[in-house]
Amino acid sequence: MKALVLAEKPSVAREIARVLNCQSKNKGYIEGPKYIVTWALGHLVTLCEPHDYDEKYKQWRLEDLPMLPDRMKLKTIRQVNHQYRVVKSLMIRKDVNELIIATDAGREGELVARWIIDKANCKKPIKRLWISSQTDAAIKEGFARLKPGSEYNNLYQAAVCRAEADWLIGLNVTRALACKHNAQLTAGRVQTPTLAMIVNREKEIQEFKPVDYWTLRADFGEYFGDWRDKKGQGRIFDEAKARELASRLQGQDGVITSLNISSKSEAPPLAYDLTELQRDANRRLNFSAQKTLSVLQDLYEQHKLVSYPRTDSRYISSDIVPTLPARLKAMGVGPYADFAGALLKKKLNPGKRLVDNSKVSDHHAIIPTEQPLNLGKLNTDEKKLYDLIARRFLAVLYPPHLYEQVTIITTVNSEAFHSRGKRTKEMGWKAVTTVIAEKENDSAQEIPLQNLTSQQQGEGKQVKSLKTNKARTTPPPRFTEATLLTAMESPGKYIEDEELRETIKGRGLGTPATRAEIIEKLINSFYVERRGKSLVPTDKGIQLIALAPDSLRSPEMTAEWEQRLNDIAVGKGNRSEFIRGIRESAVEMVQKVIADDATFKATNVSRSKCPSCGKNMLLVNGKKGKMLICPDRSCGHRQPEKPQNTDIFSRGKGSSRYDQKLIARYSDKEEIGTNLGDLLKEAMAKKEKEK
User: Fold this and answer.
1) For the whole prediction, is pTM greater than 0.85?
2) Contact 3, 122 (CB under 8 A)
């Protein structure tokens, strides 16, 4: 008898098959003496569409809403039905006595496999491969420690609840908005509150009223000091007061009234989870969240250099500690050789900032694997992202950064000037990497660091010069992908109600695995545009938030749903209660959209007519430039603003080789006629002569 192994992707299946000594390649699967390895192509099975329940839902009508099937059903995805048939046929083979789920070890991976099994009505015993890296050693160890499939039943139930909730909320509210306003408007359980945060931030920026203020800086010769009042504030909003202070203190004698030298220890940063890596890659490399996930997936699957990407943990469990020397040895080449070598010379004793079993759920932090590193096999983006992961891993294992902090207060005529310095004693982890802090607020109040020479308390100082600097208050910055990921992870700070803010603490919008997809969806739906690193809502996005139901655009409800899904995944929640609440919310939201008397008006209407329905198309900023899209939801036509020239004789020089091959191919065909062939040759000759 044989075991059927179901992987999520063909590339992963091939690696598993190789490790399991499966060598007989067939259409859709690879067979060996003990195992048959097959694969999905992402999802093979999905929830039925509305019209699968009732033909009337093929037409989008307000009077048919809300759509609430008694029981959600599954169907195969037409485009990949051929692979589903292969997998199902293998499941019912008489020589297959058990199934091994080897899809991604997470909520969505569980859903991919279980939906296929449920749709095929397969009742054979199930085991689960749960691994955090794709190395040969990890695969072998995983198959030696297969777990009963029943251990992941709760995870599957949470995944089903997530999918059904997205169907019930997303499809119903989307249809309500689209039908009510006859526009291409969409809504989603996570998408809408995320967009609301971007829109609300833009509103704050637009309504912000800048105010002038002044600061004072005194030069004492060996160092400078910034004026602060008794409350520690350095901004003066009264110009007359600033001028008076400057005039009174210019050239005056002062004294060092306070000098404090304290030893400080800065602990290494925590290891990466997916969200923190996406944030750092956006700040340092200008990678989008989606690009980071894509490159990371290749480092995990193709190169096997990093552990499981879609993790929400920044710690490792104690059972990983014995593997740390092997990981350091494998990555200890090139720019990492000296750092890894230094760690390998002594006994590794990682502390609680890396090892904490209580903070590891399904997967540990993203760290290098035992796979030997060959930088020559990585492309530029893969090298850059691996460098972040490798240096962060090394940094966590290095000792703290030790320094002395020096603070000086120099008093001149009862006015205090503050100075701050730093003296490094041991570089520690900062010799390996640095951490870029997120700064959303105005940093004008921050006292800058400077090199402070030895000073003595009570020592007299003279104001060599005193400068008055004028500045203006600035609005809060627009979200970048880095700061938006932070907001999605911890949306509580964006909720005004204090009680609700406490309730939502520790809950986020979406999961680390889905947040990048949500951001891309907002951009692809033309609700948000990228301007440099900033995310700016479009007029369409701003109007959508005004039209969406209050409860859907507020992050607390969505974050609460996400927490309840997490509870279901660990066996604490009730699936039936959750879905009942979702169905009630869908009814309420649809009713609010229908009753609302607000209207939607496109402000980007162009003069170009839709070739399909004749309506004036909308001009939007697409990923590859400006695009024209039809405003009618039932049409959906879209095209570049300036259609590319498809005339082979009018193309640029870069296509000439292709053009010549094309002309040579067709000019030899008798069926197109001699005259057309001659014309093609003459046209190409004329074009070459003109060059």
Assistant:
1) no
2) no
